[in-house]
Amino acid sequence: MPPTQPIRLTPNEARVLGALVEKEVTTPEYYPLSLNALINACNQRSNREPVMDLDEEAVRQALHGLEDDGLAGRARSSDGRVTKYEHWLGEAFNFSRAETALVCVLLLRGPQTPGELRGRTERMHRFEEITDVLAGLQKLMEREPSLAVMMPRQPGTKESRYAHLLSGPVEAAPPTAQPAFAPAYTPAFSGDPADQDGRIAQLEATVAQLKQELEALRKRFDDLFA
């Protein structure tokens, strides 16, 4: 049964949980993970933002915290001499594969755009369209309590970023200072049909995202005055 109170994971707990979820899907032959394998997964130099350097004690403490929240702990079916660890995210929230993939990548890499999420979740779940990513994010935002949030769009960016709320409210990063009178950069069009197709696909994805965000805003507005 999903937790009725908001969960507040520490950065270490979020990294450990994300690593367990990722490895269950991407390397099932090695899952559940030994403590050493879990430490290595947490400290990967690729697909991690920020890169961390957790030691054994830090990972053990994170596991204790996750176990208290009913999110991870010692593998219940492990019968070997080496203690192994697993996550219980499915039991806690009954996620779909799409939701699991999105939460996992958000835990491991922080706030991201729908386009980034689509590319980075491919090994865990294939989203055919950007609209599928947005639909999954919308389901996470509609949970009670909410598990994701759309962050304010930063000046000069085309897409909004989304963040998980398993570590509490998320503050938007301060906008990057822009030099005065800096001209906007517009990529040159090479005339190649493939280039044109790519730009059209990008525009279509942007329009689809804007429609999804508008629908979400309309729903929130209606809920306020219902």
Characterise the protein shown here.
- This protein has 226 residues and is mainly α.
- 47% of the residues lie in helices and 7% in strands.
- The protein has eight helices and five strands, in the order αβααββααααββα.
- The longest helix has 32 residues, at 193-224.
- It is elongated and about 55 Å long.
Provide a quick synopsis of the model.
With 226 residues, the chain is mainly α. The protein has helices at 11-26, 35-42, 56-68, 89-93, 97-109, 114-120, 130-141, 193-224, and strands at residues 33-34, 72-74, 84-87, 148-150, 162-164. The chain has 8 helices and 5 strands.
Write out key terms for the chains shown.
two-stranded antiparallel sheet; mainly alpha; 226 residues; 3-stranded antiparallel beta sheet; 5 strands; 8 helices
Helix content percent band:
40-55%
Percent of sequence in beta strands: 5-15%
Q: Strands of the biggest beta sheet: in what spatial order?
A: 1-3-2
User: Main sheet, how many strands, which sense, barrel?
Assistant: 3 strands, antiparallel
Radius of gyration from CA coordinates: 20 Å
Annotation, overall tally of beta strands? 5
What is the terminal-to-terminal distance? Answer: 28 Å
